[in-house]
Specification:
Blueprint: H1 2-5, E1 8-17, E2 20-29, H2 35-42, H3 49-55, H4 67-72, E3 76-82, H5 92-109, E4 115-119, E5 126-133, E6 136-145, H6 155-166, E7 177-186, H7 201-205, E8 226-239, E9 259-266, H8 273-284, H9 291-295, H10 310-317, H11 330-342, H12 354-364, H13 394-398, H14 406-420, H15 423-443, H16 462-487, H17 509-521, H18 526-536, H19 538-550, H20 556-563, E10 568-574, E11 580-586, H21 596-603, H22 618-630, H23 634-660, H24 663-680, H25 687-714, H26 722-737, E12 741-743, H27 750-767, H28 771-775, H29 778-784, H30 788-793, E13 804-814, E14 822-832, E15 836-845
Domain Rab3GAP catalytic subunit C-terminal: 641-849
InterPro entries: Rab3GAP1, Rab3GAP1_C, Rab3GAP1_conserved
Family: Belongs to the Rab3-GAP catalytic subunit family.
């Protein structure tokens, strides 16, 4: 009804009564105003809305509501409760004092909203209250016991209480209308209903990368994310006399109930593989140890030696080892790297075994698999989204790295090692191997695979930029070394400036920041401006020198015309002979006396590019990068690569969602992407914000796992009829998103029959000791057990005893005298194992009594 679909609001305030603090809360259903309400005000004898609500049958058993809404069917009420959680109104005299104060307040103000006072301890949810209208009053009373008294375990006993409480003077008594709901709980789903296979850890540790390939993330919940199914069977409109329910016999068979509705109880924070994977990697960010401390190198130093300074440790770590070209298989590379590490560590101490390490290195450096020379050609991976797709370009938003890049693959491998192969030690070991590999490639002129050509891409994470920088250095060094070989035979002078024009030095974002800081510190004075211009014109000067060498006797105009055409203005003029000719001159800014261009041109000497001092010293820059990589602690590394891991996790979640097609999950994924791009775009994001992102990803993973669990339980894939399959899928998606879902056709509908089977097989498991019966699939079992009638005779019930039974009794009778006005009376009762509660609302006429 409207109680579920509408919006509830609450306003609270605090008041003091003597020296006792109370909180006052006003709960109400937000309603669209209608003209009808205005007319009602004119009629004197209209009873208050809350009294009308007592009899309304459209809003019984709302799935999500305040307990007073469920018990009394109210759409507006005020609650006065002790403000402190530990306080309670325990004595009867205090309770009566409060109630009489409430009664006076209602009478004085003419308020027709019911007012409740909470008494006893909060956990008992005990309320007493009152509602007043013109000449009418309703008293709200409550009984709460731990155990159900024997005489009140059935409808007949409850009817007796209700009638005696009304004390109606009329005979015969007007008929009592009844609404009943029984709730059944299914807890023990059979094991085969949960489809998630845990990854095969043994296969992984053994180095066989079977169930979980490197570069693929795990996904799914390790336990069933749906813990219980609650089936509510409802009889909404019964009248006394139609139905029998006493201690001997009951007509209330759940299969015959006209309404069925279902809700699922979700497991609290189920363990999810992807979430755990990313969380464990994130934990590395908080570790303080350096790679050397983790791998325990200093423990293996010879006795009496002082621990060497960082530069010495670095040179140890990166000792060049000449390797003949023909031995460049992965195993040889690993072998040379391993030898260096073994100097300081026993063989058995290696956190990663050889097989795992080889597999990873082969995955990261596929070019090393061939025995041929490494030529830096990148291999493409078929699993990646196409390069122009939105998913591929996600790295721009996350400041991570493209999903086919070495950096991205390294992040995934470190993640996997951290989770399955030796934790932090394994991470430190692989990183050390990786740094050795980078050093090896630099010294032997082998390009690093999996990186885009060109200068560092500032849209990617800093580590990716550093690797690109190293690749630029390798490229320059390689070209230089090859140039040396050919330069002996190359004595040609270029008349065109082909030799001129050096590319500006490639830079990573940290170097750019440093440079801009230096330039900013020069200040705004004339001298500062001059220095800044000189620094920025280093590249210009180099180009001028190359140009002069290639074009002897040239002028500044020639250089400007080639280098910056917009600063060379050409006009058509008529010469002495009357011919139209092009006459060129420098732009106004170039004619400013002693400007930077003129000064640079005057100081430039004709030197070919290859003989000039290198603008970009690749050797120095490469060593800087290698040093930077070597000093990264695992925590620094994890911070660099976390955007890549989050990027991969988002892609994984998107891929899994596309198989299930859950609209609510699509929305959440969009939110995660926009949230992550805001957080990750700035350097050093806060841990709390990163945790939030990981938590959101885990929640989505749990949602998809729940959808799969429900689809498996309801067998949506086994449905042969397309229409039935669609209905089931719709039903499952509603179960995920709504608090309670109506089962079309109740026990006789398609979903209803499946739910019935689930309960039957669970009953067989609990009541039968026959193991074969326990192992049989529910369909066979269901048919083998014959009809419901036969099962009843065999005394095996299809359903367990109800976990909760709710009854609502209503009638309209004159009270307290036969000539009083006929007013609504209502009593709600709930019977569970733990409690017995009666909530009565009894109205009386205050004019004619």
């Amino acid at each position: 009804g409207i109680f579920t679909s509408g919006t509830w609001e609450e306003k609270s305030d605090e008041i003091s009564f003597a020296d006792f603090k109370f909180s006052v809360s006003h709960h109400y259903l937000v309603q669209e105003s209608t003209d009808k309400e205005g007319k009602d005000e004119l009629l004197e004898d209209v009873i208050p809305q809350s009294m009308q609500d007592l009899l309304c049958m459209n809003n019984d058993f709302p799935p999500r509501a305040h307990c007073l809404v469920r018990w009394y069917g109210l759409r507006e009420f005020v609650v006065i409760a002790p403000a402190a959680h530990s306080d309670a109104v325990l004595s009867e005299s205090k309770c009566n004092l409060l109630l009489s104060s409430v009664s006076i307040a209602l009478g004085n103000t003419g308020c027709q909203v019911p007012l409740f006072v909470q008494i006893h301890q909060k956990w008992r949810r005990m309320y007493v209250g009152e509602c007043q209208g013109p000449g009418v009053r309703t008293d709200f009373e409550m009984v709460h016991l731990r155990k159900v008294p024997n005489q009140y375990t059935h409808l007949s006993g409850l009817l007796d209480i209700f009638k005696s409480k009304i004390g109606c003077p009329l005979t015969p008594l007007p008929p009592v209308s009844i609404a009943i709901r029984f709730t059944y709980v299914l807890q023990d789903w059979q094991q085969y209903f949960w489809p998630q296979q845990p990854p095969d850890i043994d296969a992984l540790v053994g180095g066989e990368v079977g169930g979980l390939e490197f570069g693929k993330l795990p996904f799914g919940a390790c336990e069933d994310p749906i813990s219980e199914l609650h089936l509510a069977t409802t009889w909404p409109h019964l009248t006394e006399g139609i139905i029998v329910d006493n201690d001997v016999y009951s007509d209330l068979d759940p299969i015959q109930a006209p309404h069925w509705s279902v809700r699922v109880r979700k497991a609290e924070n189920p363990q999810c593989l992807l979430g755990d994977f990313v969380t464990e990697f994130f934990k590395i960010c908080r570790r303080k140890e350096s790679t050397d401390e983790i791998l325990g190198r200093s423990a293996f130093e010879e006795e009496g030696k002082e621990i060497a300074d960082i530069s010495h440790a670095l040179s140890k770590l990166t000792e060049p080892t000449p390797v003949p070209i023909h031995k460049l298989s992965v195993s040889n590379m690993v072998h040379t790297a391993k030898k260096k590490i073994r100097k300081h560590r026993g063989v058995e101490e290696s956190p990663l075994n050889n097989d795992v390490l080889n597999t990873i290195l082969l995955f990261l450096f596929p070019d090393a698999a061939s025995e041929k020379t490494l030529d830096g050609t990148t291999s493409t991976d078929n699993n990646n989204p196409p390069s122009e797709s939105e998913d591929y370009n996600l790295y721009n938003q996350f400041k991570s790295a493209p999903s086919d890049s070495l950096t991205y693959k390294l992040a995934l491998c470190l993640c996997m090692i951290n989770f399955y192969h030796g934790g932090l030690k394994g991470v430190a070991h692989l990183w050390q191997e990786f740094v050795l590999e980078m050093r090896f490639r630099w010294e032997n002129n082998f390009l690093i695979p999996g990186l885009a050509n060109g200068p560092p891409d500032l849209r990617c994470c800093l580590l990716h930029q550093k690797l690109q920088m190293l690749n630029c250095c390798i490229e320059r060094k390689k070209a230089r070394d090859e140039g040396k070989k050919t330069s002996a035979s190359d004595n040609v002078t270029h008349l065109y400036p082909g030799d001129a024009g050096k590319e500006p030095a490639p830079m990573t974002e940290d170097l750019l920041e440093e440079q801009s800081e230096v330039l900013a510190k020069l200040g705004t004075s004339a001298e500062g401006a001059h220095l800044r211009a000189r620094m920025q014109s280093a590249c210009l000067l180099s180009d001028m020198e190359s140009f002069k060498a290639a074009n002897p006797g040239c002028f500044l105009e020639d250089f400007v015309r080639w280098y910056s055409p917009r600063d060379y203005i050409e006009e058509e003029v008529i010469d002495e002979k009357g011919n139209v000719v092009l006459k060129g001159e420098l732009s106004a800014r170039m004619k400013i006396p002693s400007n930077m261009w003129v000064e640079a041109w005057e100081t430039a000497k004709p030197i070919p590019a290859r003989r000039q001092r290198r603008l970009f010293d690749d050797t120095r820059e490469a060593e800087k990068v290698l040093h930077y990589l070597a000093i990264q602690k695992p925590a620094d590394l994890a911070r660099h690569l976390l955007p890549c891991v989050i990027h991969a996790a988002v892609l994984k979640v998107k891929e899994e969602e596309s198989l299930e097609n859950i609209s609510s999950v699509k929305k959440i994924i969009k939110q995660i992407i926009s949230h992550s791009s805001k957080v990750l775009h700035f350097p050093n994001p806060e841990d709390k914000k990163l945790e939030e992102i990981i938590h959101q990803i885990t929640n989505v993973e749990a949602l998809i796992a729940r959808a799969r669990s429900l689809k498996a339980k309801f067998g949506t894939e086994k449905c042969e009829q397309e229409e039935e399959k669609e209905d089931l899928e719709r039903f499952v998606s509603c179960l995920l998103e709504q608090p309670e879902v109506l089962v079309t056709g109740a026990g006789r509908g398609h979903a209803g029959r499946i739910i019935h089977k689930l309960f039957v097989s669970a009953q067989r498991l609990t009541e039968s000791s026959d193991e074969a019966a326990a192992l049989a699939p529910p369909e066979e079992e269901f048919t083998r057990m014959g009809s419901a009638e036969e099962r009843r005779q065999n005394s095996v019930s299809d359903f367990p005893p109800p976990a909760g039974r709710e009854f609502i009794l209503r009638t309209t009778v004159p009270r307290p005298a036969p000539y009083s006005k006929g007013l609504p009376q209502r009593m709600y009762s709930v019977l569970t194992k733990e409690e017995f509660r009666l909530a009565g609302a009894f109205s009386s006429d205050t004019s004619f009594f």
